[in-house]
Amino acid sequence: MKPRTALRAILPVLAVLSAGLGVVATPAQAQFSQGYKFLDAIRKKDGNAVQEALSEPGSTLINSRDVTSGETALHIVTQRRDLTWMSYLIGKGANVN
């Protein structure tokens, strides 16, 4: 059986299986992780969003890393030399090492 023919035979089965598993397409905004949203709020200096993200019990977002650059929130605010945000993040437990 040729690879294309095999793929055509499998596609209907995959469609049925994914429907049975409840796989649903989600809007792009809903696909971003909490860490991504947190770091985006840091970049935008959105204090309310940052505070809300960190106020959740057991939150470990303070040391989240950008998957593409490896930056943490502390890296971001250090690059822009923002002492207010730096102090805030360190006070909330950001890892300085």
What would a concise description of this structure say?
With 97 residues, the protein is mainly α. It has 5 helices and no strands. The chain has helices at residues 3-20, 34-43, 47-54, 73-79, 83-91.
Query: Residue-averaged pLDDT, rounded?
Result: 82
**Distance between the first and last residues' Cα:** 56 Å
For the largest beta-sheet, the strand count, sense and barrel status come to: none
Order of helices and strands: HHHHH
* Radius of gyration from CA coordinates: 20 Å
Please mark out the parts with pLDDT under 50 across 5 or more consecutive residues, or reply none: 23-27
Structural class category? mainly alpha
So what's the overall shape? elongated
Indicate the proportion of strand residues.
Answer: under 5%
**Tally of individual helices:** 5
The portion of residues assigned to helices is 40-55%
**Count the strands?**
0
Layout of SSEs?
Blueprint: H1 3-20, H2 34-43, H3 47-54, H4 73-79, H5 83-91
Helix pairs in contact: 2-3, 4-5
3D architecture notes:
There is one protein chain. The protein is an all-alpha fold. It is built from five helices and no strands. The chain has helices at 3-20, 34-43, 47-54, 73-79, 83-91. Helix 2 runs antiparallel to helix 3 (47-54) and helix 4 runs antiparallel to helix 5. The radius of gyration is 20 Å and the shape is elongated. Residues 23-27 have low confidence and may be disordered.
